[in-house]
């Protein structure tokens, strides 16, 4: 019989509501209405109490959607609901949009122990924000940053999208400089992906080509490294000590609870995903997709996820866990990647370089 794995100490909670739907967005989301949110929070509380068997949670991430799209009363109800699980949290993150992160909500964040905020900036050019149906300006971002710091919340991530329509290379570099001027602790840069059923898809907006994306990431990395940031994961940079502890749970192939509409989780040897049907979810008929993770699957996940970060794969730990000497079984391939500057091998840790992170799919397929 397979040994039961320790209960997860990471918790993700999904809030699907948004004030408006951005033209590129394909996340599980819907327009905010008070009555919808009221029903949703009832169902969310029920799932939280039934599924999360561990109160000793170390990292919490409330994402979306836009959690701050809830009105003040509902937002506090959400934070109060999570409070029994947050007593021992070392990192507690809430996602926010600048236009809905009011001073009253910031005070609620502080009251309930939230110590990290992730803000969707996407662009620092107001005309670009307007063109993609974002409802904030860069001035709003500055104001929110001031308010957060005035309330002693300084661990802040800012998101940026690479490859938006009509954004030149020069504008992208201006975005990075503008974001750096706000002095965040963490910066995430995601390359635009165009999904079916989005406005971008309907309007035939194209994703940035590989060369543009590569040059953009290379330029961004150079600017951020000069400012003291480390590229620790494919799309993420952080000042020393400010890497996202919660997201590292995913990338280190650890277990975590996923609560809410469309949320994913990983408990014991089961990866699951909740229903994305709102009416089904709020009616307590949460149909769940499940994947039974075999030892072979676990080995693949371990390699695929750990190679996304600069921390890489500890080959000794990997061999103890899976009985496979990865270097011995793939020596020629690994040595070639090292010689080409895509991988490093130091102190038995196999890790990608910046260039390696740009071709991770190929590296993974060659090592799997």
Gyration radius over CA: 21 Å
Which fold name fills CATH's third level, the topology of the largest domain? TIM Barrel
Give the number of domains: 2
Give the name of the CATH superfamily of the largest domain.
Answer: Aldolase class I
Structural class: alpha/beta
CA-to-CA gap between the ends? 26 Å
Beta-strand segment tally: 17
**What is the arithmetic mean of pLDDT?**
92
CATH class designation of the largest domain: Alpha Beta
Give start-end ranges of low-pLDDT stretches.
none
Number of helices: 16
User: What assembly state would you assign to the polypeptide chains in this entry?
Assistant: single chain
Taking strands numbered 1, 2, ... along the chain, how are they ordered across the largest sheet?
9-10-8-7-6-5-4-1-11
Instruction: Write down the overall geometry.
Output: globular
Query: What helical percentage do the residues reach?
Result: 40-55%
| Share in β-strands | 15-25%
CATH architecture of the largest domain: Alpha-Beta Barrel
Biggest sheet details: 9 strands, mixed
Summarize the structure in words:
With 368 residues, this protein is α/β, with parallel strands linked by helices. It folds into two domains: 242 residues, Aldolase class I (TIM Barrel); 58 residues, no CATH class. Strand 4, helix 2 and strand 5 form a beta-alpha-beta unit. Helix 1 packs parallel to helix 2, helix 2 runs parallel beside helix 3 and helix 6 runs parallel beside helix 8. The model has no long low-confidence stretch (mean pLDDT 92).
